[in-house]
Amino acid sequence: MKIKLLAATSLVALASAGSAFAHATFANAPVAVGSYVAATLQVPHGCDGKATNEVQIKLPEGFISAKPMVKPGWEIEIINGDYQKSYDNHGKEVKSGPVEIRFKNGELPDNFYDTFTVYGKVAAGDPATGLAFPTVQLCGADGKVAWDQIAAPGQDPHELDGPAPVLKLVAAEADAHAGHGAHAGHGDQAAAADTHGAHAGHDAHAGHGDHMAATDPGGFQPVSLGDLDLTTGFIKAMLPGQPVGGGFITITNKGGSDDRLVSAASDRAGEVQLHEMAMQGDVMKMRQLPDGIPVPSGQTVELTPGGLHMMFFKVAEPFQEGQSVTVTLTFEKAGKVDVVLPVGPAKAK
Asked: Which strand (E) or helix (H) includes residue 310?
């Protein structure tokens, strides 16, 4: 990768903004209490020259039902716990949920900037102070930068050495659901507000969490490849602004030897990865499976919502309910096969 040096005049201009960008901050515009937001954390540098390999974000009280946006090249852990009080979410009482998100085993060089996005509802908060998200960067075996200091009432956060990133808030809107569309996508788009409807975009979050509620629309035509039978395949519909889609299928190995699903590809996506979600205690771990998915002899392996699944990245045109998507699956021994996956609804039914 080549990095071009900026002209001196550009460096002078950047210097004036350097102090404001030296800390981890949110890219979002102020968020109305009671609305949903894709809170986009900006990480501007590493640890004294070292690359950042982990970003730990503690979620404040009042930020509920959080879902991290999938980030290629990073594993994600969701740590669940009890809230200090209960909250109403669409008429349902919510007492517990994610309290910390950890993006792990990635590589963000010190001289690069990146964002980390967590979608959730601002169920409570004081517009006078906003919501502070204590954050820690880990770099290598011993590097660490902590943005975990919370300003006392009336204190200027800029007086702190490591101020926690603060999501700015405004008073609740007349229609508490008007903020559902706040999630406009990844990066800078996450700061945009979309108020075109009461629920315009509430399910636009493309993270793994959404795929736990996908619905099989039926209509998949079973396919056989040697000793393998492929059944119950489908894809969840995407809404405008979603950068990632999820796909599922069931594979039965009737043969006498083990096989392995090593890759998937589709002309509808720039990249398709094999992923896994798994609960370990109170921690939900999400990770890519670069070595593929084993399909043992005499067993059935299910790629299902909330477990093993395919992730479709760089999707130019969002998958729409009623469409079908052709996917090429490659197995270690059985070879390649094309399957046509019907697209089911964006919301679980």
From this structure: strand 308-313
pLDDT in tens, 204-231: 333 444 444 567 888 999 999 999 999 9
Query: Looking at residues 9-32, what average pLDDT do you find?
Result: 62
Identify the H or E element spanning 261.
Answer: strand 259-265
For domain 8-205, give its CATH number from 2.30.300.10, 2.60.40.10, 2.60.40.2230, 3.30.230.10.
2.60.40.2230
End-to-end CA, the chain: 46
- Ranked by mean pLDDT, the top range of 118-122, 172-176, 204-208 is 118-122
Q: Do domains 8-205 and 211-344 have the same CATH topology?
A: yes
As a whole number of angstroms, the distance between CA 246 and CA 206 comes to 9
158 vs 161: CA distance, rounded Å: 8
281 sits in the region (left: phi over 0; alpha: psi -120 to 50; else beta) called left
What pLDDT, on a 0 to 100 scale, did the predictor assign at position 291?
Answer: 95
Query: pLDDT digit string (tens) for 185-210?
Result: 333 333 333 333 333 333 333 344 44
Q: Where are the domains of the chain?
A: 8-205, 211-344
DSSP 66: E
Q: CB of 330 within 8 A of CB of 230?
A: no
Which residues on neighbouring strands pair with residue 82, listed in sequence order? 96
Q: Which amino acid is at 319?
A: F
Q: Which two tokens stand for residue 339?
A: 């399957």
Structure-block tokens of residue 50: 């070292």
Fold of the CATH domain 211-344: Immunoglobulin-like (2.60.40)
pTM tops 0.85, yes or no: no
